[in-house]
Structures are given as C-alpha cells and as structure tokens.
C-alpha cells in the first residue's frame, strides 16, 4: 500500500464482510462485482472466508503460471494487505481452471 494512508485502511476480512452484506442487498448482475486487490505479483481476488481461513486466487498475474492459482490463507483479522497473510499448504492440489474459450 501507499505511504500515508493508514487512517483509511480497513482490514481485508472486515471489508469482505461488508461486501458480503452489500451483495445480499443486490440482485442479478450487481452481484458480479469482485473483491480484488492489486499487488506487485498481480491482481488477487478474495473469494471467501470460513473457519479460520481466507480463500484467494490470482485473477491476473505478471507470472503466467500464477494466473488462476487458488490459495488458502490463515485468517488474520488485522491484515490490510496480501503480504499480511500466510498460505496454508494444501495436501491435495487444487486443479487448474480450464477455460472453454
């Protein structure tokens, strides 16, 4: 994040909760918005949260091999940036998404 914006930072997991509440009040195409943060490695989408985990995936990445990579992160309620999370290694790898077009 940029310097000097600490007053405006909202933790990622709190932001996700706010977005979930907003989606519940929406219908149709309005629910297609995504919660994405820009990072030096690419655009990272927060796709869910459950039982001490935050689920993320690379929406876009500078390194082609990272595009679509799914990650399970250990919950960190005070995290305001991707770098504040630690990935939980998965015993079974998540299959890559195959696009039809």
Could you outline the blueprint of secondary structure elements for this entry?
Elements: H1 12-24, E1 36-39, E2 42-50, E3 53-61, E4 70-74
Antiparallel strand pairs: 1-2, 2-3, 3-4
Q: Can you characterise this structure?
A:
The radius of gyration is 14 Å and the shape is globular. The chain has a four-stranded antiparallel β-sheet, with no helix packed on it. With 101 residues, it is of the alpha+beta class. The chain has one helix spanning 12-24, and strands at residues 36-39, 42-50, 53-61, 70-74. 13% of the residues lie in helices and 27% in strands. It contains one helix and four strands; from the N terminus they run αββββ. It has a domain at 34-88. 8% of the residues are buried.
Salient structural properties:
alpha+beta, 4 strands
Summarize the structure.
This protein has a domain of 55 residues.
């Amino acid at each position: 994040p940029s310097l000097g914006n600490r007053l405006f930072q909202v933790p990622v997991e709190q932001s996700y909760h706010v977005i979930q509440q907003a989606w519940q009040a929406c219908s149709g195409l309005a629910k297609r918005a995504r919660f994405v943060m820009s990072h030096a490695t690419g655009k990272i989408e927060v796709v869910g949260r459950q039982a001490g985990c935050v689920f993320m995936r690379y929406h876009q990445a500078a390194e082609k091999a990272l595009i679509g990579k799914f990650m399970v992160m250990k919950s960190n309620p005070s995290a305001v940036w991707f770098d504040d999370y630690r990935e939980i290694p998965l015993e079974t790898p998540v299959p890559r998404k195959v696009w039809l077009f």
